[in-house]
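<context>
A single protein, sequence plus fold
<entry> Chain with its tokenised backbone below
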Amino acid sequence: MASHSSALPHRSDLLTSLNTEHHRLGLNVFLAIVIAHWAEHVVQAIQIYALGWPIPEARGVLGLFFPWLVTSEWMHYGYALLMLVGLIVLRRGFTGRARTWWSISLGIQVWHHLEHLLLLLQALTGNNLLGRPVPTSIIQLLVPRVELHLFYNAIVFIPMVVAMWLHRRPTPAERAQMRCNCAVVPA
């Protein structure tokens, strides 16, 4: 029987590659996406609290050029899903303490993703939580949306960065278990 050849690598080969020889590249690309998103939230907070803009006008950088992005629950959900997938896909490359911190970030992102799924479902159905005038997440009942998303992004980002830091500086036992080249070579 003839072998099947494809221009795209098999899914398991891609996942293995992203957690072995291309783990550092995958982490760097993922980190760049996360930092860009984080920067959008920080710019929005600066627009509100430092520049005194009304919340509807404070749209971050991209929202100034594409205002519909800020009000699109699909865009916000898509980013939450991308974060969840990135944390899941790249997790296998971590060992020891770094894996623990990465898993903490993943656990928090699972909740963050569920909150965005709830917002998206409300936007799609028009049935908002507790009859609110706009889609509302559970924690948003207690904390305003701008502040809540700054908080969510911080509590996902911090353990993620700790994990990356520890991953680049493994203990000898952790280094022995690593299948990638992410560790900094000792001087």
Residues 96-125 form the longest helix (30 residues). DSSP finds eight helices and no strands in the chain.
